[in-house]
């Protein structure tokens, strides 16, 4: 009887400490059918690097509000119970990375990923944009372009498109593809045929 009671107490304690951390849901993620329609309308163009790319050509982490820049804004938006100091730096909280399902309690373990990487945008149309437009793209919080994810997973992704890299969690393929397509559609960027094929396959998992 004592063992049964003890087991029940331990179970209750485990339940209390297993606080669920929600997956982030940036704005503007379209339905699968809308994403299919948007993908069909994108211009398909062979990969061609015009050269001259530099991350500095996409001014990022602009001031969003008060002392908060866009990185800090996304950390707060995508985290759970995030506490920030007067400089808007996250001092505590939890972040669940949708790419791999890992949960982190230190903001230093989290990167803010550009769903469509800056280099990919450069080669698919952004090289002809003004610096001002590239800054808007790099700090776009009105679409599913910015995500708080595990830092080394973001580094593994680099500037790869979905035909070369997919999230470790296959259960996230649907949301990933819908978000990628929405960003490309919103910013009128091109896709390669391999990229379109990969996105179509990922959307078929929805």
Automatic annotation (TrEMBL):
Domain of life: Eukaryota
The keyword Ribonucleoprotein appears for this protein: no
GmrSD restriction endonucleases C-terminal domain sequence ranges: 105-200
Keywords: Signal
Signal peptide (UniProt feature, chain positions): 1-18
Transmembrane portions of the chain: none
Entry-linked InterPro entries: GmrSD_C
Protein name: GmrSD restriction endonucleases C-terminal domain-containing protein
Organism for this UniProt entry: Echria macrotheca
Lineage of the organism: Eukaryota, Fungi, Dikarya, Ascomycota, Pezizomycotina
């Amino acid at each position: 009887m004592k063992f049964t009671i003890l087991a029940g107490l331990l179970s209750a304690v485990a339940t209390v400490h297993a606080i669920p951390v929600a997956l982030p849901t940036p704005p503007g993620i379209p339905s699968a059918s809308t994403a299919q329609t948007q993908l069909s309308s994108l211009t398909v163009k062979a990969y061609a690097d015009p050269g001259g790319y530099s991350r500095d050509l996409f001014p990022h982490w602009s001031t969003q509000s008060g002392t908060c820049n866009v990185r800090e804004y996304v950390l707060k938006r995508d985290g759970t119970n995030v506490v920030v100091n007067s400089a808007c730096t996250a001092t505590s909280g939890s972040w669940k990375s949708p790419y791999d399902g890992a949960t982190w309690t230190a903001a230093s373990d989290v990167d803010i990923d550009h769903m469509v990487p800056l280099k990919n945008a450069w080669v698919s149309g952004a090289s002809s944009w003004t610096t001002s437009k590239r800054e808007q793209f790099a700090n776009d919080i009105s679409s599913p372009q910015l995500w708080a994810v595990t830092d080394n997973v973001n580094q593994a992704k680099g500037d790869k498109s979905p035909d070369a890299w997919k999230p470790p969690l296959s259960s996230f393929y649907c949301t990933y593809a819908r978000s990628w397509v929405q960003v490309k559609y919103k910013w009128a960027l091109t896709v390669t045929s391999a990229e379109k094929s990969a996105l179509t396959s990922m959307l078929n998992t929805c």
